[in-house]
Design goal:
By secondary structure, the protein is of the alpha/beta class. The chain has one domain: Glycerol-3-phosphate (1)-acyltransferase, CATH 3.40.1130. 50% of the residues lie in helices and 13% in strands. It has a seven-stranded mixed beta sheet with strand order 1-7-6-2-5-3-4, sandwiched between helices. The longest helix is centred in the C-terminal third of the chain and has 39 residues.
């Protein structure tokens, strides 16, 4: 049944995406916010579909830690679900993504239209300078910047591998950084069709104030995200084991 639901959701995801990307082409010549609203609708439809078809719901903890003004959001990244969520998880975020995604027909056009930040990970220091310039432009528009510090999806339990981009944004832009832990990879696998019913928890940590030295900031960021992520993963495993024991007891009774 889980495999069937996963296949059904993939069909739903691609169908909704095709209808909205093709039907929304006129938005590309209209004001940016029209496209932003369309992407938010797409995200909400995908989150709803994940809950209805596969049983994957989500909970946000610590939403009060997100500042009302511009900031840097540094989120753990375990699954494609994370990229869907952050379109609505923050107010009009400028999400940092790899440049290759902007070459994807239709998707890339929309990403550029709404002002996502594309980074060429093979361009070295030049890429970092461009990242900072684009980040400053987003902050000037009153938008938060959302970055995955590890640059790519990591399986739950994998060693942390933070890249320099998040430190460059923090030190150069002088805004608070909000660390975020999550456990999405347990339910939506990063490189497989597997979808397991359950509740993804997104835990927003207290902001790290601006002005720290680069090394101090990176240590605090990792210390905020990694233990919290490990705890969320352990909590989910414990709840899963308890549910399994309850089901077994019910069957034996």
């Amino acid at each position: 049944m889980t495999v069937a639901r996963a296949l059904a959701f993939q069909a739903y995801l691609y169908t909704v995406s095709a209808i909205m990307t093709l039907g929304g082409l006129p938005l590309l010549v209209l004001p940016r916010l029209w496209t932003v609203n369309a992407m938010r609708l797409w995200s909400r439809l995908q989150l709803w579909g994940a809950a209805w078809i596969t049983g994957i719901t989500y909970e946000i903890r610590g939403a009060e830690h997100l500042p009302p003004g511009p900031c840097l959001i540094a989120s753990k990244h375990q699954s494609m679900w994370d990229t869907i969520f952050w379109i609505v998880g923050a107010r009009d975020p400028a999400i940092v993504l790899k440049k290759e995604l902007t070459y994807v027909p239709l998707y890339g056009w929309y990403a550029l239209k709404v002002g996502m930040i594309a980074i060429d990970r093979g361009a070295g220091p030049r890429a970092i300078r461009k990242l900072v310039r684009q980040g400053r432009r987003a902050l000037d528009q009153g938008r938060p910047i959302m970055i995955f510090p590890e640059g790519t999806r990591q399986a739950p339990g994998a060693p942390a591998a933070y890249k320099p981009g998040v430190a460059a944004l923090y030190t150069q832009l002088n805004v608070p950084c909000v660390p975020v832990a999550l456990n999405s990879g347990l339910f939506w696998a990063r490189r497989a069709l597997t979808r397991k019913p359950g509740k993804i928890v997104v835990e927003i940590q207290p902001a790290i104030p601006p002005g720290l030295a680069r090394r101090t900031f990176m240590a605090r960021l990792e210390a905020a995200i990694e233990p919290a992520t490990a705890r969320l993963v352990a909590e989910a495993h414990e709840k899963g084991a308890q549910a399994q024991d309850t089901q077994q007891d019910t069957q034996e009774a």
